[in-house]
Specification:
With about 350 residues, this protein is α/β, with parallel strands linked by helices. Helices cover about 40% and strands about 15% of the residues.
C-alpha cells in the first residue's frame, strides 16, 4: 500500500473529497496518478460542482493478482481488475480526472471511510460520466458476434423505435440470424459485476453511463436501445420452444434471469424506495465488507434521512443491524409484525457473518 502521507486530511464539514488525475501514457508505461482535494457542494450551495468522471467496477479478491502504480510519486499497490480498468481508461496525450473509491479514499482511515461513504450517492450523482467496467475474459467471448459491427447497433435503434409489424418482423429476422450475438449479450448481463452491492447505487444514480465490456465501449444510448429490443422480443415471442426465435431463446432466458437485467431495468424505471424494499431487492448482492450490505444502499432509501443511521466501519455487524431496527421502531413506529419482518430480513442478509462479529 501507499505511504500514509499521500493522503492529506480531508475536512468533512467543508464537503471535501479527493479526485485522481490519471496521467497520460501508452499501454506499456507504468500507470501514474496524482491526487488533489476538491469540494463537492450540496444542492443548497451556490458554488459550481467540480468536473470529473467516476469508475464503477468490481474490486476482486484481496489475495488475487496485484500491480504497482505510482500515486503522487510513490509506489501504491492496486488489485488486478482496477489496474486493467485504469489501463483501459488512460488516454495517450491527456490526463483524465477520475473518482475511484480504492484510491481516492484512504482505506486505512476508518473515520475518513465513514464520512466519504456518506457522500457516495452525491459523488456518483455529480460525476459527468460513470464508467462501468465489466472486466475481461470469461464466457462472454464477443469475437465475431457483431459487437464491433455498427450495423447491429443501427438495427437495435431501428427496432427500439419501430411500431410497424412488418418492420419489427424484418428486423427480428436480422437479429435472430446471429445467435452468437445474443450469447454474448446474455454473458454481458451475467457478469459478476452486476452482483456487487455497491453498483445498485453507482449504476442507478449516474447521470450518464459508458459500459466497457471486453474490448467494446457501449454508449448509454446503445445500451438502452438493446434493452428496449430485448423487452420487445420477450413480449412478442416469449421464451418458450415455439417462439419465433427459438435459436435465441436459451440466451434470452439466461438474460431475463440475470442480475444485470434486473439492475438495468431498475435504472430505467427508477423510483424512490424504502430501505426495507431495497434490502429485499438486493439481499443476494455481494460485498467484500459486510457493513456495505446496508451502507451501500442508504443513499437510495427514500425513508432514511442523512445521519439517521450512523455509518461506522468500526461498528459490529450486530450493532449495524440494531441501528436499522431501532430506526424503524423509534422513528417510524412500525408495528410489531413489521418489526419482526425487518429483523428476520436483517438476519437473512447477515446470515453468513461470524457470531463473533455480533
Amino acid at each position: 500500500m501507499a505511504s500514509r502521507n499521500i493522503y492529506a486530511p480531508l475536512k468533512a464539514s467543508w464537503g471535501q473529497f479527493r479526485i485522481m488525475r490519471l496521467l497520460p501514457g501508452s499501454m506499456t508505461e507504468q500507470i501514474s496518478c496524482e491526487l488533489f482535494i476538491d469540494v463537492l457542494p450540496t444542492d443548497a450551495d451556490s458554488i459550481a460542482k467540480p468536473e470529473y468522471e467516476a469508475l464503477s467496477y468490481e474490486w476482486g479478491l484481496s489475495d488475487g493478482r496485484s500491480h504497482e502504480i505510482l500515486l503522487s510519486g510513490q509506489p501504491h499497490v492496486i488489485r488486478h481488475n482496477l489496474f486493467k480498468a485504469l489501463l483501459g481508461l488512460r488516454k495517450k496525450k491527456e490526463e483524465r480526472k477520475l473518482w475511484v473509491d480504492a484510491i481516492c479514499i484512504d482505506q486505512m482511515n476508518v473515520q475518513e471511510r465513514n464520512h466519504q461513504v456518506e457522500r457516495m450517492s452525491d459523488i456518483y450523482r455529480s460525476a459527468g460520466c460513470v464508467h462501468v467496467w465489466l472486466g475481461e475474459g470469461g464466457c462472454g467471448n464477443t469475437t465475431g458476434t457483431g459487437f464491433h459491427d455498427k450495423r447491429f447497433w443501427h438495427i437495435m435503434r431501428a427496432l427500439s423505435l419501430s411500431s410497424s409489424d412488418r418492420t419489427r418482423r424484418r428486423v427480428f429476422g436480422l437479429i435472430a440470424m446471429n445467435e452468437s450475438f445474443w450469447a454474448a449479450v446474455a454473458a454481458l448481463f451475467e457478469r459478476t459485476y452486476w452482483s456487487r452491492m455497491w453498483i445498485v447505487q453507482e449504476f442507478i444514480l449516474a447521470q450518464e453511463i459508458l459500459i466497457h465490456y471486453e474490448s467494446h465501449v457501449i454508449s448509454e444510448l446503445d445500451f438502452n436501445n438493446l434493452t428496449a429490443v430485448v423487452v420487445k422480443i420477450l413480449r412478442e415471442s416469449g421464451t418458450g420452444p415455439n417462439g419465433i426465435f427459438a435459436t435465441t431463446n436459451s440466451h434470452l432466458l439466461r438474460l431475463a434471469n440475470s442480475p444485470g437485467w434486473k439492475i438495468s431495468r431498475f435504472r430505467e424505471h427508477y423510483r424512490k424506495r424504502t430501505l426495507i424494499e431495497l434490502l429485499e431487492t438486493c439481499r443476494n448482492s455481494k460485498s467484500s465488507d459486510a457493513h456495505d450490505r446496508v451502507y451501500a444502499i442508504l443513499g437510495l432509501a427514500d425513508d432514511v434521512p442523512p445521519d439517521a443511521t450512523p455509518i461506522d466501519y468500526g461498528r459490529s455487524i450486530f450493532k449495524v443491524k440494531m441501528d436499522v431496527a431501532w430506526f424503524y421502531q423509534e422513528k417510524l413506529g412500525h408495528a410489531r409484525m413489521s418489526m419482526s419482518k425487518t429483523c428476520q430480513l436483517l438476519d437473512e442478509i447477515f446470515a453468513d457473518c461470524d457470531e463473533e462479529d455480533e
